[in-house]
Automatic annotation (TrEMBL):
Lineage: superkingdom: Archaea
Ranges where the HD Cas3-type domain occurs: 4-185
Keywords of this entry: Antiviral defense, Hydrolase, Metal-binding
Entries under InterPro entries matching the protein: CRISPR-assoc_Cas3_HD, CRISPR-assoc_Cas3_HD_sf
GO biological process: defense response to virus
Protein name, entry field: Predicted HD superfamily hydrolase, possible nuclease
GO molecular function terms attached to this record: hydrolase activity; metal ion binding
Amino acid sequence: MTCLAGPGEPLELHLEEVASCMAARGRWLAPKLARVLGVEEALARDLIVFVGYAHDVGKADRKYKDADRYFPHHEAKSAVAVQKALDSADWRIRRLAVYAVARHHYSFKELQPLGKVTFQPRCKITISWRPETELFNEALNLLFRDAEDDIYDSAVSRDFLEALEGPARYAGMALLGLLSDCDYEVASRNRR
């Protein structure tokens, strides 16, 4: 079964191209993220690419089986999947990823917990990327497990959506800006 990201654009293609764009354009951001997070640059590079792959994974939910243009609140489903996939990660890494994914359409301007969000994947998405770090290798496997393997029924806490502070604020804004730029460019090129 093929899931769509938008009219005429397969979700798998969209995620691959957004992640590729983020990898290429995010080279300047990785060293800065690494400094802010206190991690190796490889982990920061993986975070950037992972966010590109994860941002629209919520569109694979069964709720959208007949959708091709409008996927209301898919970013909430994506954020829940990211939070679960990065459960073993340092909270700062998890928070930056959830923040960028949840807000990638500038959603959740009014801060509030997302409440219970169900994510039931309905299609298999194959990813070509191989992360540099074990953390993101595990997270990728959790995020793109076989359809019907798991149903996430969870909440994204307000803590993950609140404005970041200090250097993390600027790191989050840069990651979100990069995602938004790549997402728009890829969608504009591929959708009919």
